[in-house]
Amino acid sequence: MGSHSSSFSSFQSYFRALSDTPNRLLRRACSVSTSFEEMSQARERSGSNMRRSLRWYDLVGFGVGGMVGAGVFVTTGRASRLYAGPAVVLSYAIAGLCALLSAFCYTEFAVDMPVAGGAFSYIRVTFGEFFAFITGANLIIDYVLSNAAVARGFTAYLGTALGLSNHTNLRFTIHGLPKGYNEMDLIAVAVVLLLTLVICYSTKESSWVNMVLTLLHILFIVFVIVMGFSRGEWKNFTEPANPKNAGGFFPFGVSGVFNGAAMVYLSYIGYDAVSTMAEEVRNPVKDIPIGVSGSVILVTVLYCLMAASMSALLPYDMIDAEAPFSGAFKEGSSRWRWVSNMIGVGASFGILTSLLVAMLGQARYMCVIGRSCVVPSWFARIHPSTSTPVNASVFLGIFTAAIALFTDLNILLNLVSIGSLFVFYMVANAVIYRRYVNRGTTNPWPTLSFLFCFSLTSVIFTLLWQFAPSGKPKALMLGSCIAVAIGVLQLFHFMVPQARKPEFWGVPLMPWIPSISIFLNIFLLGSLDRPSYVRFGFFSGLAVLVYILYSVHSSFDAEKDGALSQKAGESIKESVDNPDDIPKV
């Protein structure tokens, strides 16, 4: 008996299913899972179990290795040259704060429900299957595109390490294709496919390799910071190379700092990958909070120091947007060229660690999405010998390699930032909803009304910040929005009691911290350009289409077969209230 036997057994069955789509949407779109189902019944659909072998230091290693390479070595140059100038240091600090607040939200869910699904599972147990699918689709797109972007960044730094004057010499151009899609990068393809083989082998061995590489990478980062500050000049923080360009620490204004923060938010995708390792952690209660939050804090400090050292080395208008650190040493005398080549080697090395972690994360997301029956269950299979999701790893590895082959870095970065911010926004909403609503026993409308009003106020503030002309009226309207947001938040805090208390670890200062995370994510979303929204809308629309044409029918069949039984509106008892459901040592 298979979950596809009814709707997909023949064309006639499929067309009959399509005609029943409205009823199936009503039944399945808002259907929620439970912590018990995610941690037991859904896990059984993978066949073999993932091996619990990771500790907090493994998670910190994964977090640092996953974030540092992707952030500083790919996005810093563009953010400084085009958006923030020397104030890119503040851009990283703002993005880091936003990531830390989101990390708290992830940590509460991951401790309470230690499964590999990350944000997909968190949304599925709160807002239902449809929103979980849209979130999961954006997550998969984020990971594939960010990994493709980082792989192409690897090629740029490899060219520097080899002493090539132009990294495009390692790519070949097809003139018949549109600009931005015409530079073929076979090296990026080879790197992605090689790492796909590594992550299929074993998670613990991957952690060991990542730990060694990350420790060496941190030593390299310290070298870069020391060299940057020892050779740099403080005047580069305020004086451009070309007097005609804007000067000062904020050459693009305060808005440029937030535009830069939105761009460098790509740097923090790695902590999200750490949360997908929850199913393989020995003691989730202890290890996950240290691993997730600790890695974000450590990486934020490293990012800010490296961005400052880069700004000290060169005026912002001389920074190489593709390879900022190695390019900075090329601009000096010949006795510093060896540093440029060494940075190329080290950056290429760091990018490999970030790719390794991100590809581990994307495979686990796809595995758990497969368990929910909204994509083929083939993706959910865990290989009995390696205890890893081999099917998901291979499929996404090939997909990532295909994108890395031809797509320009700038196109990838903007799309990844908007998708990440959307997912983090959803998780912040979900943690508030889960604290204040017990389905079947609690009225959800006060909480939903608060989330809507607070998000709407944040959107209005962001629109005013971006488009209203400067002056006292703008300041007055912005101040009014802040007052309204605080008032709505205080009213909700005092009038709506929490329906459940986390037994092991919870976000502090509820609902303030997740609300601030909601505001910051919306604000950073407002800093992105119009083409980013067009691409995001296209991919989200495509995800909705896939859900209507395939996923809702697949999950409907799974419910009929007994694989899924939860329907919208049913009373749910969270069995996770029993501490025996949380693995410990």
TrEMBL record:
<keyword id="KW-0472">Membrane</keyword>
<feature type="transmembrane region" description="Helical">
    <location>
        <begin position="184"/>
        <end position="201"/>
    </location>
</feature>
<feature type="domain" description="Cationic amino acid transporter C-terminal">
    <location>
        <begin position="505"/>
        <end position="555"/>
    </location>
</feature>
<feature type="transmembrane region" description="Helical">
    <location>
        <begin position="249"/>
        <end position="271"/>
    </location>
</feature>
<dbReference type="InterPro" id="IPR002293">
    <property type="entry name" value="AA/rel_permease1"/>
</dbReference>
<dbReference type="InterPro" id="IPR029485">
    <property type="entry name" value="CAT_C"/>
</dbReference>
<keyword id="KW-1133">Transmembrane helix</keyword>
<feature type="transmembrane region" description="Helical">
    <location>
        <begin position="388"/>
        <end position="406"/>
    </location>
</feature>
<feature type="transmembrane region" description="Helical">
    <location>
        <begin position="412"/>
        <end position="433"/>
    </location>
</feature>
<feature type="transmembrane region" description="Helical">
    <location>
        <begin position="445"/>
        <end position="468"/>
    </location>
</feature>
<feature type="transmembrane region" description="Helical">
    <location>
        <begin position="208"/>
        <end position="229"/>
    </location>
</feature>
<feature type="transmembrane region" description="Helical">
    <location>
        <begin position="119"/>
        <end position="141"/>
    </location>
</feature>
<feature type="transmembrane region" description="Helical">
    <location>
        <begin position="82"/>
        <end position="107"/>
    </location>
</feature>
<feature type="transmembrane region" description="Helical">
    <location>
        <begin position="504"/>
        <end position="526"/>
    </location>
</feature>
<dbReference type="Pfam" id="PF13906">
    <property type="entry name" value="AA_permease_C"/>
</dbReference>
<feature type="transmembrane region" description="Helical">
    <location>
        <begin position="474"/>
        <end position="492"/>
    </location>
</feature>
<feature type="transmembrane region" description="Helical">
    <location>
        <begin position="532"/>
        <end position="550"/>
    </location>
</feature>
<comment type="similarity">
    <text>Belongs to the amino acid-polyamine-organocation (APC) superfamily. Cationic amino acid transporter (CAT) (TC 2.A.3.3) family.</text>
</comment>
<keyword id="KW-0812">Transmembrane</keyword>
<feature type="transmembrane region" description="Helical">
    <location>
        <begin position="336"/>
        <end position="361"/>
    </location>
</feature>
<protein>
    <recommendedName>
        <fullName>Cationic amino acid transporter C-terminal domain-containing protein</fullName>
    </recommendedName>
</protein>
<dbReference type="Pfam" id="PF13520">
    <property type="entry name" value="AA_permease_2"/>
</dbReference>
<feature type="transmembrane region" description="Helical">
    <location>
        <begin position="56"/>
        <end position="76"/>
    </location>
</feature>
<feature type="transmembrane region" description="Helical">
    <location>
        <begin position="292"/>
        <end position="316"/>
    </location>
</feature>
